[in-house]
């Protein structure tokens, strides 16, 4: 006959300790974790794509446009008077809608249908980085994102290496408020006509190849320029010869 004491002692012998995890199961779990960690470390780091949220554009436009803005007279940037937008008579036989950049005087002319042009002050590229030529405007962008070209990074890694994955759109972006993208045929030249967060550079030679404008000025120009228009960038004083 089984007594209560016998039952307790027997139960203790049978169930005195929890079942241990089998050694092979522990090893398999550890191996799986190790493989997962190794696979995760081997994955290439995906760079974050720069963004320019359209919801921010109206606020940014207001931020770079002077209060009570008049394009012909507002000048909080301290520009020379001649670099403010001015209506001038256009030369005959110029195509309305096209852009002409006088690199010597640092002017950009946008030809209008009534035989006039609006003239803006601009900055152009430093030294040999300026590329005169005839270009097609195939793309336009509001508050564009930006990435320096590989040539820019190689030429000046101290300034540009940190932006190799791109920069978000916004008032501090080097392309500013608007950009017109210059092509030759279907080839993007990486040259732009764009706004600049450095308006005091207007009238000088400051960029890495592009034509710079005051951000408020190019906001006004932007909607007047159609894709497909031609941009003529004329030679600088360095490139002018007796036959030019």
In angstroms, what is the radius of gyration?
A: 32 Å
> Total number of β-strand segments?
11
Strand proportion: 15-25%
Class computed from helices, strands and strand pairing: alpha/beta
Q: What sequence of helices (H) and strands (E) makes up the elements?
A: HHHEEEEEEHHEEEEHE
**Spatial order of strands in the largest sheet:** 1-4-3-2-11-6-7-8-10
DSSP summary: helix tally: 6
Distance between the termini: 124 Å
Mean model confidence by pLDDT: 84
Helix content, binned percent: 10-25%
* Largest beta-sheet details: 9 strands, mixed
What overall form do the CA principal axes indicate? globular
Spans of at least 5 consecutive residues with low confidence = 1-25
Notes on the structure:
There is one protein chain. This protein has helices at 4-15, 23-42, 57-64, 150-155, 157-160, 215-222; strands at 86-89, 99-102, 107-111, 116-121, 124-125, 133-142, 178-184, 187-196, 205-207, 211-214, 230-233. It is an alpha/beta fold. The chain has a 9-stranded mixed β-sheet with strand order 1-4-3-2-11-6-7-8-10, covered by helices on one side. It has a two-stranded parallel sheet with strand order 5-9. It is globular. The model is unreliable at 1-25 (pLDDT under 50).
List the helices and strands and how they pair.
Layout (H helix, E strand, L loop, with lengths): L3 H12 L7 H20 L14 H8 L21 E4 L9 E4 L4 E5 L4 E6 L2 E2 L7 E10 L7 H6 L1 H4 L17 E7 L2 E10 L8 E3 L3 E4 H8 L7 E4 L11
Parallel strand pairs: 2-11, 5-9, 8-10
Antiparallel strand pairs: 1-4, 2-3, 3-4, 6-7, 6-11, 7-8
């Amino acid at each position: 006959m089984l007594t209560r004491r016998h039952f307790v002692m027997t139960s203790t012998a049978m169930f005195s300790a929890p079942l241990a995890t089998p050694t092979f199961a522990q090893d398999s779990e550890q191996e799986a974790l190790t493989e997962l960690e190794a696979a995760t470390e081997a994955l290439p780091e995906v760079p974050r794509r720069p963004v320019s949220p359209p919801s921010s554009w109206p606020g940014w436009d207001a931020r770079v446009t002077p209060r009570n803005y008049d394009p012909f007279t507002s000048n909080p940037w301290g520009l020379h008077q001649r670099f403010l937008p001015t209506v001038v008579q256009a030369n005959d036989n110029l195509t309305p809608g096209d852009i002409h950049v006088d690199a010597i005087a640092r002017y950009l002319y946008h030809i209008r249908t009534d035989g006039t042009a609006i003239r803006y002050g601009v900055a152009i590229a430093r030294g040999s980085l300026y590329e005169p030529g005839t270009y097609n405007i195939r793309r336009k962008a509001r508050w564009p994102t930006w990435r320096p070209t590989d040539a820019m990074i190689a030429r000046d890694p101290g300034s540009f290496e940190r932006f190799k994955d791109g920069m978000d759109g916004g008032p501090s972006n080097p392309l500013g408020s608007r950009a017109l993208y210059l092509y030759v045929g279907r080839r993007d030249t990486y040259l732009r006509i764009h706004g600049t967060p450095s308006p005091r550079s207007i009238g000088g030679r400051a960029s890495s190849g592009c034509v710079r404008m005051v951000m408020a000025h190019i906001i006004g120009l932007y909607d007047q320029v159609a894709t497909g228009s031609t941009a003529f960038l004329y030679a600088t004083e360095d490139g002018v010869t007796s036959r030019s």
